[in-house]
Amino acid sequence: MPSKLTEERLQKAIANAGVASRRHAEELIAAGHVTVNGNVITEMGVKVTSEDAIEVDGVPLNQEEKKQYFVFYKPRDVISAVTDNKGRRTVTDFFEDVKERIYPVGRLDWDASGLLIMTNDGDFANMLMHPSYKVEKKYVVKVQGIPTRDKLMPLKDGLVVDRKKLAPAKFKQISSDKLKNTAIIQLTIHQGINHQVKKMFKAIGYPVMKLAREQYGPLTLEGLQPGEYRPLKREEIRALEALAQKG
């Protein structure tokens, strides 16, 4: 009697093949970029097996791609996604010369700028985004108002946001402008919930006016201008993996 083929959800199969993270695989499916046995699939939860012919943008899932890793300086007003159904500019629009199907590791808000890792290595992306791993990310935040150290201390103690207890953050006030009633704060966190930095500062009464990520683990934006990118060095990849596994 032949053994039964193992089924798995389509987005998981795409992620396991290294084409995209599971979150971005779901975006690709919803946008109509994925076919199974010649049929376009736009619904989540479809089950597939190793015998199904799966293609993403016409490329078979089992077709090996060279693993690519980049540091990208995301400009403001750019979507951290592979596609956008509203026709807005996405981060992948800056990588037209890269033939592999890369995608962002995590997100930066549309109106935020700064360091974003781009890759087509699903295991690497999932490792960096998994909540149990603790790779530090450093942000520079411009807020409305000039908080005292006491007002900032809840960031260090661990806020409750959306009924979720956040891990303690590190902060440093860089400057303030009494005439404009604004301050610049450096914030270091290792989590990555949706709109986390904005929610943290809103919770303590200082809304974010401008936000930029300047560091991800050992990576910085040195030598890059908004919209530019560079390949990750092998030692940088290893350092990120080591930090994630240590966390």
From TrEMBL:
Domain RNA-binding S4 per the UniProt entry, residue ranges: 8-65
Record-linked SMART domains: S4
UniProt cross-references to InterPro entries, sorted A to Z: PsdUridine_s_RsuA/RluB/E/F_cat (IPR042092), PsdUridine_synth_cat_dom_sf (IPR020103), PsdUridine_synth_RsuA/RluA (IPR006145), PsdUridine_synth_RsuA/RluB/E/F (IPR000748), PsdUridine_synth_RsuA/RluB_CS (IPR018496), RsuA_PseudoU_synthase (IPR050343), S4_RNA-bd (IPR002942), S4_RNA-bd_sf (IPR036986)
EC number: 5.4.99.-
Keywords: Isomerase, RNA-binding
Cellular component terms (Gene Ontology): cytosol
Biological process per Gene Ontology, one example term: enzyme-directed rRNA pseudouridine synthesis
SUPFAM superfamilies reported in the protein's UniProt record: Alpha-L RNA-binding motif (SSF55174), Pseudouridine synthase (SSF55120)
CDD domains in the cross-refs: PseudoU_synth_RsuA_like (cd02870), S4 (cd00165)
Gene Ontology MF term list: RNA binding; rRNA pseudouridine synthase activity
Entry's family note: Belongs to the pseudouridine synthase RsuA family.
PANTHER family per the UniProt record, alphabetical: PSEUDOURIDINE SYNTHASE FAMILY PROTEIN-RELATED, RNA-BINDING S4 DOMAIN-CONTAINING PROTEIN
Protein name (record): Pseudouridine synthase
Organism, scientific name: Lacticaseibacillus camelliae DSM 22697 = JCM 13995
